[in-house]
Specification:
mainly alpha; about 85% helix; about 0% strand; 2 helices
């Protein structure tokens, strides 16, 4: 998921540099959403790991 966030951020930068403001804003919005979802999932997994909850019993 972080990989896709970085890809959309790069697309946003390139589109902005080429003058495509709408595409740049859309790609930046998608990158932000994916990044925050990545952060939430990472925090959940860290908390589960600290609690000792295993996926496989």
């Amino acid at each position: 998921m972080l990989k896709w966030a970085i890809i959309f951020a790069v697309i946003s930068l390139i589109a902005g540099w080429l003058g495509f403001g709408g595409v740049s804003a859309g790609a930046a919005g998608i990158a932000k959403i994916l990044f925050f979802v990545f952060i939430v999932v990472t925090v959940i997994f860290v908390v589960l790991a600290l609690l000792g909850v295993g996926v496989v019993s």
